[in-house]
Amino acid sequence: MANPILDADAPAFTRRYMNLADPRLGAAALFASDEFFAPKERMLDPQPAVFIPSKYDDHGKWMDGWETRRKRTTGHDFCIVKLARPGTIHGIDIDTSHFTGNFPPAASIEACTSDSPNPQEDGDWREIVPATTLQGNRHHYLDIADARAYTHLRVNIYPDGGIARLRVYGQPKADWSRVARGTLHDLAAIENGAYLVAANNQHFGPASQMLMPGRGVNMGDGWETRRRREPGNDWAIVALAHPGVIRAIEVDTAHFKGNFPDRCSLQAARVAGGTDESLVTQAMFWPVLLPEQKLAMDNVHRFEQEVAALGPVTHVRFNIFPDGGVSRLRIFGDIE
């Protein structure tokens, strides 16, 4: 069975970038104009929304999301969300799953960059999603073309209703000018700005989860491919957070026991120009950074002596043989 987090119709940004609205990474719903039927925090839950037909609470039908009461005055409802990291937003998913007769007819989103504890009042808000028509019980994937980094969002719904989930896909902006040279940094960490370029298969779990902080909490918190029934191997390409000289690599197969890869290897290169899509073919011919290494189940594998001296690189291709699941991938290097 495919992972329910993966929507086959979702655009690439949902599989490529970090969800900046993930509370596990520090995002928070700060304020809502109303949350009578369902609290604002539920809108940021990292798990897909569920519907429990017989579940009610003191306010009425229990809904898995943020839901306001029926508005009987002028105006509209809104919610202020603090992002987990300041970052550039590439796409947003406004998900109204299970909201049918109670979804908002429209929504817009504003963004600001603020150090204030009260950005609602003094934030320099810019509209990044104009008023957009919503439908019930569906995902609304919205591309964002704005290179600025933001810290907060204001989600406006017109005039009232419920949103099951809000996902904000983007790249955190790290200030590398403040980072000391000569110390190792995880250049594949999604919170540092690394992102997934492509993966050949993500049937059971998105490859971008390998770049998340901490160890995986279960087998669903990692990259897992389907069982391979043909020759070849599975792979994922990662754009590093900063060019660097790779000194150590960690491959963590936490929770993967009957389905971990037999072996892995890495290739790497310094890439200038082209597009992410053009890297898929190029990556097949990149120099070897880590020759094939045997893997074990539910284990952290650290490689240092085996890492080739390729000089500064910007991208890696992670190969697993022939298929399987990996919880986390760490690429430690000196920044250029």
TrEMBL record:
What SUPFAM superfamilies would the database entry show?
A: Galactose-binding domain-like
Q: Family per UniProt?
A: Belongs to the allantoicase family.
What pathway is it annotated to?
Nitrogen metabolism; (S)-allantoin degradation; (S)-ureidoglycolate from allantoate (aminidohydrolase route): step 1/1
Domain Allantoicase: start-end pairs: 26-172, 193-335
Q: What is this protein called?
A: Probable allantoicase
What this protein catalyses is:
allantoate + H2O = (S)-ureidoglycolate + urea
One of the GO biological process terms: allantoin catabolic process
Enzyme Commission no:
3.5.3.4
GO MF annotations in UniProt: allantoicase activity
HAMAP family noted in UniProt: Allantoicase
The keyword Hydrolase belongs to this UniProt entry's keyword annotation: yes
Domain of life, per UniProt, equals Bacteria
The keyword Hydrolase is assigned to this record: yes
Query: Sorted alphabetically, which Gene3D superfamilies does this protein's record hold?
Result: Galactose-binding domain-like
